[in-house]
Design brief:
- With 85 residues, the protein is mainly alpha-helical.
- The protein has four helices and no strands.
- InterPro entries: DUF3243 (IPR021637), Uncharacterised_YmfJ (IPR024702), YmfJ/YflH_sf (IPR038292).
- This is Protein YmfJ.
- Pfam families: DUF3243 (PF11588).
Length: 85
């Protein structure tokens, strides 16, 4: 099973990258913008590998750009709170 297929491993991977970005001094706004760009790329180019990713993909596909920004911001908060560091 790859990291993309296991939601907890995916959260932990993202948390590690988030922690690294924060350590390097990346602002919260820059992190949220990057999360939006990554979300947009994943929604357009990557087939969801688990139920959680499918839900996110479905939500992203019907959301306005402002709602997509909100989804990205909430994902950053989720990773901050749930991901291992």
């Amino acid at each position: 099973m790859t990291m993309m297929e296991n939601w907890k491993q995916w959260e932990d991977f993202l948390a590690d990258r988030l922690h690294h970005a924060q350590t390097e001094g990346m602002s919260e706004g820059a992190i949220n913008n990057l999360a939006f760009q990554i979300g947009d790329y994943l929604a357009s180019n990557v087939d969801p590998k688990n139920e959680q990713q499918r839900v996110l993909s479905d939500l992203w596909s019907v959301a306005s750009p402002q709602e997509q920004q909100a989804i990205a911001s909430v994902m950053v908060k989720l990773i901050q709170n749930n991901g291992a560091r």
